[in-house]
Design goal:
With 117 residues, the chain is an all-alpha fold. It is 79% helix and 0% strand. It contains 6 helices and no strands.
């Protein structure tokens, strides 16, 4: 049970890291405009799927005890958003390759809650 809590908290932390990475990349003034438009689209999906709220809720639910059903529901919501962002990053790989590593990490960690590996 404690292992599940640690996995959920690690996933929540990596969600926050991904969000901050996207925001910092978008705020970087040295990016070409076409590139920042694509990053802005990722930012919109992050806000649309409420990644920050999902990360906060994952942390809250798994701080003291593990609510496996609710954690599973939160992870399923996260996976929906990650799939869309990942497909977009693959289609625009030349400009968005920098995000593929973090997306891979999120997909891999979220798959632990589905039993896939």
């Amino acid at each position: 049970m404690k292992f599940q809590m640690q996995k959920a908290n690690l996933l929540a932390e990596n969600i926050r890291v991904f969000i901050n990475f996207v925001y910092k990349t978008l705020d970087n003034k040295n990016n070409p405009r076409s590139y920042s438009d694509k990053v802005y689209q990722i930012k919109l999906w992050i806000e649309d799927f409420k990644f920050q709220s999902l990360a906060n809720e994952l942390t809250r639910v798994n701080q003291v005890t593990c609510d496996e059903k609710y954690t599973q529901l939160l992870v399923e919501r996260l996976i929906k958003g990650i799939q869309i962002i990942d497909e977009y990053a693959e289609r625009n790989y030349e400009e968005l390759f920098i995000f593929t590593g973090k997306l891979y990490t999120l997909k891999n960690q979220s798959s632990f809650f589905h039993g896939e590996e």
